[in-house]
Design brief:
Layout lengths: L1 H37 L2 H7 L5 H12 L5 H13 L4 H13 L2 H11 L1 H25 L2 H14 L22 H4 L3 H34 L3 H7 L6 H18 L6 H11 L3 H9 L5 H11 L1 H28 L23 H21 L1 H4 L5 E3 L6 E3 L5 E5 L2 E5 L2 H9 L1 H20 L13 E2 L6 E2 L6 E5 L2 E5 L2 H9 L7 E3 L6 E3 L5 E5 L2 E5 L2 H9 L2 H5 L4 H4 L8
Antiparallel strand pairs: 1-2, 3-4, 5-6, 7-8, 9-10, 11-12
Helix pairs in contact: 1-6, 1-10, 1-17, 3-5, 4-5, 4-8, 5-7, 6-7, 6-13, 7-14, 7-16, 10-13, 10-17, 12-14, 12-16, 13-14, 14-16, 15-16, 19-20
Length: about 550
């Protein structure tokens, strides 16, 4: 009976933490989804070409507004680096992506106090500064170059243009963010990111809350006290900030799921700086170290482990003494099981906020399920393993299965898929059948990759290319419109409605705001990846305006403008 009682108290403690932080999780995931939908990853890549202070600040900002999943963050950092971003800037992006995120701060605040939320951002900034100082001196330029070559060699179908600009398959990504943020299509994509992030992190969250509940209710306080030195001043703090990352390595709990366990460790007697070092160390859990080994090789992974562990521990140590000097250091909790499982039930502000959050989440889920109706989902695919929404043009990993390209958020998911593809194919088939059933009964529809739906670049409306009222060919791309009015506006100046456009010579995607060259032909502006393509076009534009004419435009019987 005592064992069942312990299990019951552990699960109740874990659920109590979940209930106390539910509204914060919904808020954080919703904001993260919105930013991911409206911030271009291609722009991130172009902005991270070195490790100067301004570049690292941009890397930290981009990381802060990205997904908080450790696996996705490591995969995106790898992709940014392989496609031209500086190595240190890519790692700074990864650090910020999992440690300087809003939902993490709010959950820390609710579970163990506002000081920990503030320390997350203060310590995170210290950690990134330390990383910027140490990493370029530990990982030599030739090692970075070999690592990049290793990654590029593993990428399928390299074209030779990887270091310029990546094409963006999502029509919505060609629209300025100010246009997307005013469209239902843009917000339905944001809802897609929110739901996919929750789906992707559901296991980490469940494991984190359950493990924390058992660590708090079932593990004797004497065990924790035997691990953490106390009463020895600097040496106690030093031992705690070193031990914190080690516990993270062996806990296997990453992303936001390690915050509940951090609360249990705080109750067990670890120091303030030790908690901060433990939270930061979600990027060196054993599964992620194995992923780094595949990305960069054993030698470089060991260097990264040493640098990451050192910067995390030093950041925890610095944060402890900064808060102590400022008089902000929280008092240690009293001995016993008092932190987790507090009385959070009843009609109080937590319950009110949780009810509002559940209603808001239901609205986001409805928007996600009906995104095709609003023009969302085009240019995106769902990772069949973790459920994350992936932009197909920027997918960190892909594979071919049954004649179809499958997109993944990380190599971790790709490896799980290739180990047993039929398992995930069967699950996708069941989901597709359920989605079709819902669509037939008016409930909503899941986006199906390859659906013949595109966006009008002027108004953002979803149109069917085969029945669109007007069509336009520009720089080798086909555009389709809801009516002649939108087509006329686009014809007058196509670049006014595009944030990225194709180079008419080589076909690369070019940032309209920062092109490598410009030219005018037949009254139209064109942008180029570099001076070479611009010069070739200027010398004789006609061949490039004819041989890149899209087939769906040339064969169309609708309104054509060439």
């Amino acid at each position: 009976m005592s064992a069942l009682d312990t299990i019951g108290r552990s699960l109740l403690d874990g659920f109590g933490m979940f209930w106390e932080t539910l509204w914060a999780l919904v808020l954080g995931f919703a904001l993260s989804g919105a930013v991911q939908a409206f911030v271009s990853r291609a722009e991130m890549q172009r902005a991270l070409g070195d490790h100067r202070p301004a570049t690292l600040a941009r890397a930290s900002f981009f990381g802060t507004v990205s997904s908080s999943c450790s696996y996705a963050a490591s995969a995106l950092a790898k992709t940014l680096f392989s496609r031209g971003a500086d190595f240190t800037a890519a790692q700074a992006f990864m650090f910020a992506s999992t440690n300087l995120v809003l939902e993490l701060g709010i959950v820390l605040w609710l579970l163990i106090g506002w000081q920990f939320a503030v320390a997350e951002f203060v310590g995170g900034a210290i950690m990134i500064v330390l990383l910027a100082v140490v990493l370029p001196r530990v990982v030599r330029p030739d090692e970075q170059q070999r690592a990049r070559q290793r990654l590029v060699a593993d990428e399928p179908a390299a074209t030779g243009h990887e270091h310029h600009s990546e094409p963006d398959d999502a029509p919505g990504a060609q629209l300025p963010w100010r246009t997307r943020i005013r469209s239902m299509a843009g917000w339905s994509d944001a809802a897609g990111y929110t739901i996919s992030d929750v789906t992707m992190l559901r296991k980490e969250l469940v494991i984190g809350f359950v493990v924390a509940g058992f660590a708090e209710a079932a593990v004797p306080v004497s065990f924790w006290q035997s691990l953490f030195w106390t009463g020895h001043g600097f040496w106690s703090v030093g031992e705690n900030v070193i031990l914190g990352p080690f516990l993270a390595i062996i806990s296997f709990v990453c992303s936001i799921g390690n915050v509940p366990l951090a609360a249990a460790l705080w109750a067990g007697g670890i120091s303030f700086g030790g908690v901060i070092a433990f939270v930061f160390a979600d990027l060196i859990t054993l599964p992620l170290l194995l992923i780094y080994r595949k990305y960069y090789g054993t030698h470089l992974t060991l260097k990264l482990l040493a640098v990451f562990w050192a910067t995390m521990s030093l950041a925890g140590l610095a944060t402890e003494y900064l808060f102590k000097a400022a008089g902000l250091l929280p008092a240690p909790p009293p001995p016993g099981h008092a932190i987790v499982g507090r009385d959070v039930y009843g009609w109080n502000y937590t319950t009110v906020l949780d009810v509002i959050a559940l209603v808001a989440f239901a609205g986001l889920y409805w928007l996600y399920r009906n995104r095709e109706r609003f023009g969302g989902g085009t240019g995106y695919a769902k990772d069949p393993v973790c459920g994350m929404q992936v932009q197909t043009s920027q997918a960190p990993a892909t594979t071919q299965h049954a004649g179809t390209t499958v997109f993944f958020c990380s190599d971790h998911c790709k490896h799980r898929f290739t180990a047993d593809p039929d398992r995930y194919a069967r699950r996708d088939a069941r989901e597709a059948t359920a989605s079709q059933h819902e669509h037939q009964h008016g409930v909503g529809s899941e986006y199906q990759p390859g659906a013949a739906q595109v966006r009008d670049p002027v108004c953002g409306m979803t149109v069917d290319p085969t029945t669109a009222a007007a069509h336009e060919a520009y720089a080798g791309q086909a555009f389709h419109f809801c009516g002649a009015g939108c087509a006329d506006s686009f014809t007058a100046d196509p670049l006014a409605y595009l944030s990225e456009a194709s180079d008419p010579v080589c076909g690369m995607s070019v940032d309209v705001a920062h092109p490598g060259g410009e030219a005018v032909a037949a009254g139209r502006r064109y942008v180029f990846c570099g001076p070479g393509c611009a010069q070739a076009f200027t010398a004789d534009p006609q061949p490039y305006l004819t041989h890149r004419q899209p087939a769906e435009i040339t064969s169309s019987t609708k309104v054509l403008r060439t």
